[in-house]
Amino acid sequence: MDARLNLFDSPVAAKLLKHVIAAGKAVSESTLPVATQDLVKIRASQINGCGFCTDMHTKDAAHAGETSVRLNLVAAWREAMVFTDAERAALELAEQGTRIADAAGGVSDEAWLNAAKYYDEEELAALVATIALINAFNRMNVMVRQPAGGYRAGQFG
């Protein structure tokens, strides 16, 4: 299966991706725990049906030491006992931030206040940025039908 459009060969897409990736570096350099960043990226990618991003972020997380139990339970995080309260708050924020169109009020005050119990303002900013960026990547990859399964951990540095 080939993608509808090669995002890596398109000058416009390459230019855009350069900026989106640069924005992501600000998050990766933040104090938001890397494991939380990974979990949020995986969950949003699952919700959006982005096989490419789900493949990439689960492999990168596993390479960074994340356990298979936690990776396998991200989609069922509410019932899983393997996530911290802080991670659960981040996952809830990620779900609501990803499903904005499904809820009339967007992200609830309850979800925001719960996340704010565990993350300071800079970490909340990084969390919001992570959710926004992964949703942008998901949407691009889903639209072009970027194939999944061939990613190698660390492939994009």
TrEMBL record:
InterPro entries: AhpD-like, AhpD_core, CMD-like. Pfam families: CMD. Residues 23-95 form the Carboxymuconolactone decarboxylase-like domain. It comes from the Bacteria. This is Carboxymuconolactone decarboxylase family protein.
